[in-house]
From TrEMBL, chain B:
<feature type="transmembrane region" description="Helical">
    <location>
        <begin position="60"/>
        <end position="81"/>
    </location>
</feature>
<dbReference type="GO" id="GO:0005886">
    <property type="term" value="C:plasma membrane"/>
</dbReference>
<feature type="transmembrane region" description="Helical">
    <location>
        <begin position="217"/>
        <end position="239"/>
    </location>
</feature>
<protein>
    <recommendedName>
        <fullName>ABC transmembrane type-1 domain-containing protein</fullName>
    </recommendedName>
</protein>
<dbReference type="Pfam" id="PF00528">
    <property type="entry name" value="BPD_transp_1"/>
</dbReference>
<keyword id="KW-1003">Cell membrane</keyword>
<keyword id="KW-0813">Transport</keyword>
<dbReference type="InterPro" id="IPR000515">
    <property type="entry name" value="MetI-like"/>
</dbReference>
<feature type="transmembrane region" description="Helical">
    <location>
        <begin position="121"/>
        <end position="146"/>
    </location>
</feature>
<feature type="transmembrane region" description="Helical">
    <location>
        <begin position="93"/>
        <end position="114"/>
    </location>
</feature>
<feature type="transmembrane region" description="Helical">
    <location>
        <begin position="190"/>
        <end position="211"/>
    </location>
</feature>
<keyword id="KW-1133">Transmembrane helix</keyword>
<keyword id="KW-0812">Transmembrane</keyword>
<comment type="similarity">
    <text>Belongs to the binding-protein-dependent transport system permease family.</text>
</comment>
<dbReference type="GO" id="GO:0055085">
    <property type="term" value="P:transmembrane transport"/>
</dbReference>
<feature type="transmembrane region" description="Helical">
    <location>
        <begin position="7"/>
        <end position="24"/>
    </location>
</feature>
<dbReference type="InterPro" id="IPR035906">
    <property type="entry name" value="MetI-like_sf"/>
</dbReference>
Length: 271, 251, 278
C-alpha cells in the first residue's frame, strides 16, 4: 500500500504517471449553490479505466454533487468534465448511474425496471427483456423478474438498480452511496458481490460512500474530500490483495491500518 | 404544500385575470362578467347597505357556532375513534359516507327540522365541517409514534396523563390540518345553507340582487365571500405553520 | 453474485410489502362485512327509534322512508328523476375531467402555465363556488346549460388541483433516473411522470365526481326543480316527508356507492403501487 502525499497543485501529473489511461477527467470544477454556498472548489481528478475509485468524505463535502456532475445530472458552475476525451454536456450512454434511493418505478416489474434504460433507447421489447433477464440473474434475482419493487427488500431493490445500470452496457458505473439504505449484513454481502462483479464485468467504477471501511474494502483508490468548501484532501492508492476469500480482507493488517489512518485524517473535520 | 405559501409573484397573475375580466366586461363578450371596475364600485354600495351589516352578523354568528360545535364534536369523535376500536368500527363507515356524500341534499331535511332561520345554517356549517375534522383527528391519534407512548408508560404515566400530555400534542398537526379543511368546508356550508334558506343573511341579499338584476352587486358580494374564505384559510395555515416545526421533527 | 440468490430468497420472507394509510373508502373496504352490516343496522335502529320517540311529523321513521322509497320505485318516478339528474352530471363531470386533468397536468409540467392558472384554481378550490350558482342562473337561464356549469364549477377545481399536485409531487429521483439514461422530455413525461401521477389524478377524479353530485343537487334545488331536486321540492311542498327523505337518502347512497366503486377501480388499476395512492 502506498500513501500518496496530499494533493496540492498537480493531480494531472499523478494521473499521467499511472499505467492505465484516464477515462473520466475532471478539470477545475467549481460548484456554487444559491450564489454563495461553495459545494465544490477547484476539483481536478482523473479516473483510470477499469479501476474502482471511491469518493469518500464526511457529509457536506460535496461527494454526491461531484458524482452527479460527472453523471451530467448537475451543471458545474465552472470547469469541465471529459469522458473518453470528450467534454460532457449531459448524461451519456457511456455512463450509468446507480441511485442512493434506488429510483425504481413502483408500477413496473423488476424486469421492466431493469430494462428501462434500454427501453428509453428504443431497444425492441424482446431484445431488451433478454438482456435485462441476464443481468437480473447476474445480480442474484433470478425468479424475481415479475415481482414489483414493493415486494422486495431494500437490498434486493438496489440489486435491481444495479442490473438496470449494467444492462445499458456503459463503460463507467457511477454509484451514489448505493448501499447506504440497506442494513449492515446486506451491505457486507453487497460489498463482496461488488468485488466479484468486477471480475466478470470490465468496467470503471466511481463509488460514493461515507463509510471508511466500505471505501477501503472495495476500492483501488480513494479520493478523500474535505468539507466546507468541498475539495480534494488526499488521494490514496490501495494495494490490498483481493483473493479468493473476501472475508480475509477484513482481517488484513493493511486494511485495518488504512482504515485507521483515514479515520485520523477525517476526524478533524467533524464537529 | 407550497400553494398556501407566500408566492407573491405567482399570485400576481390574478391581476392579469382581473384585467382580462375588465376587458371582457367592457366588450360585453360574456354576459356573466360585467366590467371588473363596475363590480368594485358596487362593492362600496354593497358594504354600505343596511342589509349587508345584518347579513354579515348572521353569517359570522352561524359560522362561528357551527364551526365551534364541529371542532369540539369532531375532535372528540376523532379521539373516540382513535382510541376505542369498537367505536371506530361502528362509526368509521358513517364518517366516510358523510365525507363524500352530497351534503347539500341534506339541507332540505335540516330546514324541515330546524326551521328557516339561523339554526339551519349552523347545522349546515356543522355538517360540512365536522367529518373531516373527526377523520383527521382519528388519523392523528392512530399515528402517534408507539415509542412516545412507550416512553410515557415507562415513566409511569397514567392513561389520562398520556392522553393529555402526549396524544393530544402528538396528534396536533393532523388535528390542525383537519380543522383547516373544516374551516374551508364550513365557509361552503355557511354559503350553501343561506342560499337554500334564501330568506336570511347573504342568501336574502343574493335573492334581492337577482330579483333586481344587479349583476355588479351580485359579483361584489361573491367576491367578499371569496375573500372571507381565503382569509380564514390563510389564518389557519399560519397557525399550522407555527406548529410545523415540531411536526417536521417527528417525520 | 452467484450465492446472492439464496440470500435474496431468504430476505423476501421478512420483507413485508409496506402499507401506507389506506384511502378513505379503502378504510371501509378493509372492515369485515359483519361490522358494516352491524353499523348499518345500528344506524337504522337509532333512526327508527328516534323518529318514533320524537313523534315529529317532519321526521319520518326509517321504515316509513323505506316504504316511500319502494313506492317511488314502483311508480317509476324515481327512475325518471334520476334520468333527468344524471344528464347534467355526466356532461359536467366529463367536461371537468377533460379540462381539469389537462390543465392540472400542464400546470404541473410548465412553470409558466402554473404561474398563470394556479392562483385561479387555488381561489376556486378554497372559495364557496356555490355562491355563483344563482349568478349563473341569472345569466344562462334555468335550462340544462346552467346545471352543467354548476357541476363544472364544483368538480373542476378539485380535479385540476389534484392532477397538478400529482404531477408536481413526482419523485425527483425518478425523473433524474430517466434523465441519466438519456430519456427525452417526452419519455420522461409518458413513462415516468404520468404513470407515477395517475393514482393521485384518479383520486382527484373520485373527489371531483363527489363534488359533481353536490353541484347537480344544488343546481336542481336552486335553479329550477328538475329530476331529484324536483322530487325533493315537490314532496316537501305537499308535506309528504317520508317520500322526500327517501329521495334524499337515495341520492346520498347513490353518490356514495358511485364514489366507492371508483375507489375500488382505483385500487384495482394501480394495484402494484397501491402504497403510493394516498
Amino acid at each position: 500500500m502506498t500513501m500518496a502525499e496530499p494533493i496540492v497543485a498537480a493531480p494531472e501529473r499523478r494521473a499521467a504517471s499511472d499505467v492505465a489511461a484516464p477515462i473520466v477527467e475532471v478539470r477545475g470544477v467549481h460548484k456554487i449553490y444559491n450564489g454563495d454556498v461553495v459545494a465544490l472548489k477547484d476539483i481536478n481528478l482523473s479516473f483510470e479505466e477499469g479501476r474502482l475509485t471511491s469518493l469518500l468524505g464526511p457529509s457536506g463535502c460535496g461527494k454526491t454533487t461531484l458524482l452527479k456532475i460527472i453523471a451530467g445530472l448537475l451543471e458545474p458552475t465552472a470547469g469541465e468534465v471529459m469522458v473518453k476525451g470528450r467534454k460532457i454536456t449531459g448524461p451519456g450512454p457511456e455512463r450509468a448511474f446507480v441511485f442512493q434511493d434506488f429510483a425504481l418505478m413502483p408500477w413496473a416489474t423488476v424486469l421492466r425496471n431493469a430494462a428501462f434504460g434500454l427501453e428509453l433507447r428504443g431497444v425492441p421489447a424482446k431484445e431488451r427483456n433478454e438482456t435485462a433477464r441476464h443481468y437480473v440473474e447476474e445480480v442474484g434475482l433470478k425468479g424475481f423478474e415479475e415481482k414489483y419493487p414493493h415486494e422486495l427488500s431494500g437490498g434486493m431493490r438496489q440489486r435491481v438498480g444495479l442490473a438496470r445500470a449494467l444492462a445499458v452496457n456503459a463503460d463507467v458505473l457511477l454509484m451514489d452511496e448505493p448501499f447506504s439504505a440497506v442494513d449492515e449484513q446486506t451491505r457486507r454481502k453487497f460489498q463482496e458481490d461488488l468485488i466479484r462483479l468486477r471480475e466478470v464485468e470490465n468496467k470503471t467504477f466511481l463509488f460514493v460512500t461515507h463509510s471508511i471501511e466500505e471505501a477501503v474494502y472495495v476500492s483501488d483508490r480513494i479520493i478523500l474530500l474535505s468539507p466546507r468548501p468541498g475539495r480534494v484532501n488526499n488521494v490514496i492508492d490501495l494495494d490490498i490483495r483481493r483473493g479468493d476469500d473476501p472475508e480475509a480482507i477484513r482481517r488484513d493488517p493493511n486494511y485495518l491500518d488504512t482504515v485507521e489512518e483515514i479515520w485520523r485524517g477525517i476526524k478533524q473535520y467533524l464537529d | 404544500m407550497t400553494i398556501y405559501g407566500y408566492r407573491i409573484p405567482m399570485m400576481a397573475s390574478l391581476i392579469v385575470w382581473c384585467i382580462l375580466w375588465e376587458i371582457v366586461g367592457r366588450l360585453d363578450l360574456l354576459l356573466l362578467f360585467p366590467p371588473f371596475s363596475d363590480v368594485l364600485v358596487a362593492l362600496g354600495d354593497v358594504v354600505n347597505s343596511r342589509s349587508f351589516a345584518s347579513a354579515v352578523s348572521i353569517t359570522l354568528y352561524s359560522y362561528a357556532w357551527g364551526l365551534g360545535l364541529a371542532i369540539v364534536f369532531g375532535v372528540a369523535l376523532g379521539f373516540l375513534m382513535g382510541t376505542v376500536p369498537v367505536a371506530d368500527r361502528l362509526l368509521n363507515m358513517w364518517v366516510n359516507v358523510f365525507l363524500s356524500a352530497p351534503l347539500s341534499a341534506l339541507v332540505p331535511v335540516i330546514m324541515i327540522l330546524f326551521g328557516m332561520g339561523a339554526p339551519t345554517v349552523i347545522v349546515t356549517v356543522f355538517m360540512f365541517a365536522v367529518w373531516i375534522i373527526a377523520l383527521d383527528t382519528r388519523a392523528g391519534v392512530l399515528h402517534v409514534p408507539a415509542s412516545l407512548l412507550e416512553m410515557a408508560r415507562s415513566f409511569g404515566a397514567s392513561r389520562w396523563t398520556t392522553t393529555w400530555k402526549i396524544v393530544l400534542w402528538a396528534a396536533m398537526p393532523e388535528i390542525l390540518a383537519g380543522i383547516r379543511l373544516g374551516v374551508i368546508r364550513g365557509v361552503k356550508g355557511v354559503v350553501i345553507g343561506q342560499l337554500l334558506v334564501s330568506i336570511i343573511g347573504v342568501g336574502a341579499l343574493f335573492t334581492t340582487y337577482s330579483n333586481n338584476f344587479l349583476m355588479e352587486h351580485f359579483w361584489a358580494l361573491t367576491l367578499i365571500l371569496f375573500a372571507f374564505a381565503l382569509t380564514v384559510g390563510q389564518l389557519i395555515a399560519l397557525l399550522e405553520a407555527r406548529i410545523d416545526y415540531y411536526a417536521g421533527a417527528r417525520s | 453474485m452467484l450465492s446472492a440468490n439464496t440470500t435474496a430468497q431468504k430476505l423476501t420472507g421478512d420483507s413485508q410489502p409496506q402499507h401506507a394509510a389506506p384511502g378513505l373508502m379503502a378504510r371501509i373496504g378493509d372492515r369485515p362485512v359483519l361490522w358494516r352490516v352491524l353499523s348499518l343496522a345500528l344506524f337504522c335502529a337509532v333512526w327508527e327509534v328516534g323518529a318514533r320517540a320524537s313523534g315529529n311529523f317532519a321526521f319520518p321513521s326509517f321504515s316509513q322512508t323505506l316504504f316511500a322509497f319502494l313506492e317511488m320505485i314502483g311508480d317509476g318516478s324515481l327512475f325518471w328523476a334520476y334520468g333527468r339528474t344524471l344528464e347534467p352530471l355526466v356532461i359536467g363531470v366529463t367536461f371537468s375531467l377533460l379540462v381539469g386533468i389537462g390543465t392540472g397536468v400542464a400546470m404541473g409540467l410548465r412553470r409558466d402555465v402554473e404561474w398563470l392558472t394556479l392562483p385561479v384554481f387555488i381561489v376556486m378550490q378554497a372559495a364557496p363556488m356555490a355562491a355563483l350558482i344563482p349568478l349563473v342562473t341569472f345569466v344562462y337561464g334555468i335550462g340544462l346549460a346552467s346545471k352543467v356549469v354548476a357541476v363544472v364549477m364544483l368538480s373542476l377545481p378539485v380535479i385540476a388541483m389534484n392532477s397538478y399536485k400529482a404531477v408536481r409531487n413526482t419523485s425527483p429521483s425518478l425523473t433524474a433516473m430517466c434523465h441519466s439514461f438519456q430519456g427525452s422530455r417526452w419519455q420522461q413525461i409518458s413513462k415516468v411522470i404520468l404513470p407515477e401521477a395517475s393514482p393521485m389524478i384518479f383520486a382527484g377524479v373520485r373527489l371531483g365526481v363527489a363534488e359533481g353530485f353536490s353541484g347537480v343537487v344544488l343546481a336542481e334545488l336552486l335553479i329550477t326543480p328538475t329530476g331529484i331536486g324536483d322530487l325533493i321540492t315537490y314532496h316537501r311542498s305537499i308535506a309528504n316527508f317520508d317520500s322526500m327523505y327517501a329521495v334524499i337518502v337515495s341520492i346520498v347512497v347513490f353518490a356514495v356507492v358511485t364514489v366507492t366503486l371508483l375507489q375500488l377501480l382505483e385500487t384495482a388499476l394501480f394495484r402494484p403501487d397501491k402504497r403510493r395512492s394516498k
